[in-house]
Amino acid sequence: NSKGESSVLSRSVVGEYRLKVSSIAEFSKGSCASSFKRDASIISSKERATSQLRLGNVAMLVMKAENTLRASAKKMEDMTVRGRRVSMREVAELHMMAADAVRDARHAMAIILEASGAHAHFEGSELERINRDILTGSGHAVFEIDGAAENYGKTLLTSLARQKEKEAQEQ
């Protein structure tokens, strides 16, 4: 059935992006930490602050993306267990969560690439491979943030209108 197929696809996409985000996290921890230790002795305090800023931003973006993916996986599991039909608002919310996590992963990758310089784009670079994987996967229509946000906003408004109608009928 269509509901089951979309659930399997969603879980596989969430799982794939969890791995990609984790790869970035591990890579950034290793490369940023080692370059920060190396640079700490030779760069000015102003430049150290920039490195710290980038590392803090990347770490937070990666953590947010991972938490968003975990929350969406939990929501999908809960929806499966409860056994009732999934609402359009719930589907739109999951879609928005996935698109938001991918946006954060792309933003984190952009910060890492900017800090890494030209070598990050050399063939065979681990950063280049991770970036290529993220760009390829994030090109899928399901991760298009504007469409996801518009659809989620529309379902929220519809849900709110139905709730107000229900309240008015109860009075």
Can you walk through the features of this model?
By secondary structure, the chain is mainly α. Helices cover 85% and strands 0% of the residues. The chain contains five helices and no strands. Helix 1 runs parallel beside helix 3 and helix 3 runs antiparallel to helix 5. It is elongated. It starts with a helix and ends with a helix.
Unreliable stretches (pLDDT < 50, length at least 5) are 1-11, 35-42
Task: Sketch the topology as an H/E string, one letter per element.
Answer: HHHHH
Largest sheet: none
Number of strands: 0
**Averaged pLDDT:** 76
Question: What's the helical proportion of residues?
Answer: over 70%
Q: How much of the polypeptide forms β-strand, as a percent range?
A: under 5%
Rg over alpha carbons: 20 Å
Ends apart, CA distance between termini: 40 Å
- The global form is elongated
Count, helices? 5
Q: How would you classify the helix and strand content by structural class?
A: mainly alpha
